[in-house]
């Protein structure tokens, strides 16, 4: 049994990870989360009090971080500003949280010699052409496009440097696009599902031919736990489940699952600098650590996700109007 410090554990993927840890291991967890607009304490409902301690605070608060890291056996670092669109309108919090916050955590794990796992994204590798047979591997050069992905790339480079220069015991994972319960309504899939629940047409950026490589958050969590247990220090592992699909096909699938005509959506203004395609080759994770995804059928996974948003309107409704007002102001 171990005690994990999970940063960003009130966010989408962090909260899924905390549920996964509590359900599948004897570990106890402290969540450190600033509860920004993206954090939601209700995402941790149902977790027994003897397994979870919640601390509201900022990962850039060096004294607070030091005191929490001192009591942990391992840190799993999810906290970030995570939305590309927000990083285009206001990049400052992305630099602060994603770069300075990660630096603050690295200094604490260095002082206390605590195992560190850094959660990152496939977006650090830039994008691929639609007709390129290649996928991202651990050897793909960094080429981030947006303020968001460039700050995530910066944080990855800090982790590598702290491993090599100071002997910090860290691993990194770069995962593709996640879907599942507890995802904020600003993101593509929950935005369209909650629009459809409210009778509003889905909004597709540009032509909608951009491809994302979808993985269920539960599969991401299992992979992270596996890397924490058996990953080699200093190594990067790519996480993906062969879930490539164009945005327009995802929207058509959601329309079909929710009983609407498949052309019942609108094209809106494209995202500036919009990455065309992401695709992960997860061979290293599969062969070295024996991880395999459980959710292999995107349609079934999306159907479960639609059911979750239908059953949990009180979770997402408070954020919906403000999120849509901000999109409307940008013509999206
Ligand atoms: P999210 O926006 O849903 O959650 C982020 C959480 O971090 C929120 O609870 C927020 O309150 C917290 N937070 C933000 N700033 C903080 C700060 N300064 N101090 C403490 N807490 C702070 O994000 P997500 O989609 O769950 O992403 C989690 C991590 O996974 C991020 O590091 C992201 O880069 C990475 N990732 C996400 C995806 C994806 O598809 N969403 C894919 C690959 C990697
Ligand atoms: O309304 C929309 N319409 C639309 O067409 C929204 C919100 C998005 N899109 C498009 C843009 C992208 O091509 O859908 C795709 C997915 O968009 P997002 O959900 O914003 O995700 P993305 O930009 O791909 O980044 C996500 O995956 C990688 C996460 O938000 C990141 O945190 C993660 O690192």
Describe this structure in words.
The chain is α/β, with parallel strands linked by helices and 332 residues long. It has a domain at 3-178 and 214-239: Rossmann fold. Helix content is 43%, strand content 16%. The protein has helices at 12-24, 62-70, 84-89, 92-112, 147-166, 188-197, 217-230, 247-257, 283-289, 298-311, 313-329, and strands at 3-7, 28-33, 52-56, 74-77, 115-121, 170-175, 178-179, 203-205, 211-213, 215-216, 236-239, 244-246, 266-268. The longest helix is centred in the N-terminal third of the chain and has 21 residues, at 92-112. The N and C termini lie far apart (47 Å). The structure holds nicotinamide-adenine-dinucleotide and thymidine-5'-diphospho-beta-D-xylose. Residues 7-8, 10-14, 33-36, 38-39, 58-60, 78-82, 97, 101, 119, 121, 152, 175, 177-178, 184 line the site of nicotinamide-adenine-dinucleotide (NAD).
Major β-sheet strand ordering? 3-2-1-4-5-6-11
Quick one: biggest sheet? 7 strands, parallel
How many DSSP H or I helices? 11
Question: How much beta, percentage-wise?
Answer: 15-25%
Shape call: globular
CATH class of the domain at 3-178 and 214-239: Alpha Beta
What is the succession of H and E elements? EHEEHEHHEHEEHEEEHEEHEHHH
Count of distinct strands: 13
Q: How helical, in percent, are the residues?
A: 40-55%
CATH superfamily of the domain at 3-178 and 214-239: NAD(P)-binding Rossmann-like Domain
CATH topology of the domain at 3-178 and 214-239: Rossmann fold
Radius of gyration: 19 Å
Kindly report the average pLDDT value: 98
Query: How far is the first residue's CA from the last residue's CA?
Result: 47 Å
Low-confidence stretches: none
The molecules bound to the chains, other than polymers, are: nicotinamide-adenine-dinucleotide, thymidine-5'-diphospho-beta-D-xylose
């Amino acid at each position: 049994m171990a005690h994990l410090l999970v940063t960003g554990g009130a966010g989408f993927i962090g909260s899924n990870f905390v549920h996964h840890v509590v359900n599948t291991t004897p570990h106890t967890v402290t969540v450190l989360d600033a509860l920004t607009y993206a954090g939601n304490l209700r995402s941790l409902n149902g977790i027994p009090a003897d397994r979870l301690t919640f601390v509201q605070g900022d990962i850039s608060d060096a004294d607070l971080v030091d005191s929490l890291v001192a009591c942990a056996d391992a840190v799993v670092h999810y906290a970030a500003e995570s939305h590309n669109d927000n990083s285009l309108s206001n990049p400052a919090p992305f630099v602060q949280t994603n770069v300075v916050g990660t630096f603050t955590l690295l200094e604490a794990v260095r002082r206390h010699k605590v195992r560190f796992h850094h959660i990152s994204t496939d977006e650090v590798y830039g994008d691929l052409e639609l007709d390129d047979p290649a996928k991202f591997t651990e050897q793909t050069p960094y080429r981030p496009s947006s303020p968001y992905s460039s700050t995530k790339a910066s944080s990855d480079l800090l982790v590598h440097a702290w491993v090599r220069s100071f002997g910090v015991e860290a691993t990194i994972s770069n995962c593709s696009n996640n879907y599942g319960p507890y995802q904020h309504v600003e993101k593509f899939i929950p935005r369209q599902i909650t629009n459809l629940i409210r009778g509003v047409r889905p909004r597709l950026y540009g032509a909608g031919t951009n491809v994302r490589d979808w993985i269920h958050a539960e599969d991401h969590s299992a992979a992270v736990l596996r890397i924490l247990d058996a990953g080699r220090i200093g190594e990067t592992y790519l996480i993906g489940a062969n879930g490539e699909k164009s945005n327009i096909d995802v929207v058509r699938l959601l329309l079909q699952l929710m009983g609407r005509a498949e052309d019942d959506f609108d094209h809106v203004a494209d995202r500036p600098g919009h990455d065309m395609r992401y695709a992960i080759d997860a061979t290293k994770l599969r062969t070295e650590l024996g991880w395999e995804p459980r959710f292999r059928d995107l349609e079934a996974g999306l159907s479960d996700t639609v059911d979750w948003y239908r059953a949990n309107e009180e979770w997402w409704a408070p954020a919906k109007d403000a999120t849509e007002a901000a999109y409307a102001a940008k013509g999206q």
